[in-house]
Design a protein that fits this description.
8 helices, alpha+beta, globular, Aminopeptidase
Length: about 300
């Protein structure tokens, strides 16, 4: 069976929504991104497709296995990695072949390790592009929130338009720190300000740290963009603002609150574990580059 793909968000959710909602935590990226796309599409009903070129797809095995059941899905926004859910190995290699045949430019991938390796091998066979591990990330799920005690000086506040310039600067610095696309910072900040999705920690009336939260979708929300300027670190502000947004998500009806960390960052991994987050799964992020280019570091 080949992949079924679309840029129509409602079509994708009608076909793959039940599959995604069966494991909201593991499918957090696809659920949160499609919710943002759904909200944006609702605001422009004459343009029902994803305006940013995002491609969505779902996989069904042959009818002899599980008729009509979706067993895998993917999301790709141009310039960002392809994000895979769990799926059979045949679906992984078939997706690499289909995307390559379509001529779609794929700069990276986020998937569980085995799927990442299989996709990279199939992608190189089809395109010649080499892969390199960009980072290893861990998905965490909040068990019971443990507030820092003693907590840091100050208190949280939901960010608003007066914070916009500062939040854009901090977001750019955060994205550069994690080697992501800093040019998208302003749009991301504006989107989150639109639904109250950014919180600042204030000490002495001055913002000193920030954290973001996605829209709640299927009782799941994801914490992200936790950032404290280097000169203000070591004072507990990150733990304070993370606890604040986590509690706010619970209060707003989230049954599952999740976040991602870079496995190489021992400080952040320890911080979130102290706050009550527990590991769910590890994922591999790959970058792709044409063989022989400066980005080709595959071995």
């Amino acid at each position: 069976m080949s992949w079924l793909v679309t840029q129509a968000v409602e079509e994708f959710l009608a076909e793959a929504g039940d599959f995604l909602r069966a494991e909201p935590a593991r499918n957090t990226v696809l659920l949160s991104v499609t919710e943002n796309l759904r909200v944006a599409a609702a605001a422009r009903p004459t343009r029902p497709r994803a305006g940013d070129g995002t491609l969505l797809g779902w996989w069904r095995p042959s009818p002899a296995h599980i008729p009509n059941a979706v067993v895998g899905a993917f999301l790709h926004t141009p310039g960002f990695p392809v994000v895979l859910t769990s799926m059979p190995g045949e679906a992984v290699t078939a997706l690499a072949a289909e995307l390559a045949a379509s001529g779609r430019r794929v700069s990276g991938l986020s998937a569980q390790a085995q799927a990442a390796q299989a996709f990279a091998a199939a992608w190189r066979q089809r395109t010649g592009d080499a892969s390199t591990v960009r980072r290893l990330i861990r998905l965490w799920l909040l068990a019971t929130l443990v507030r820092p005690n003693p907590g840091p000086q100050g208190e949280p506040r939901v960010a608003d338009e007066r914070d916009r310039d500062l939040l854009i600067k901090w977001s750019r610095d955060f994205l550069r720190d994690i080697r992501d696309r800093a040019e998208d910072a302003a749009a991301e900040v504006d989107q989150r300000l639109g639904y109250g999705g950014l919180t600042v920690w204030e000490a002495g009336g001055t913002p000193v740290s920030m954290a973001g939260i996605t829209r709640i979708v299927h009782a799941m929300a994801r914490v992200g963009s936790v950032y404290t300027p280097p000169e203000l670190r070591g004072r507990g502000y990150a733990s304070g603002v993370t606890a604040a947004v986590s509690q706010a998500a619970l209060d707003a009806g989230a049954a599952q609150v999740v976040l991602f960390t870079d496995l190489a960052n021992a400080t952040s991994n320890a911080l979130y574990e102290r706050l009550g987050y527990r590991p769910v799964e590890d994922r591999t992020e790959l970058s792709f580059a044409a063989a022989g280019s400066p980005g080709d570091r595959a071995r």
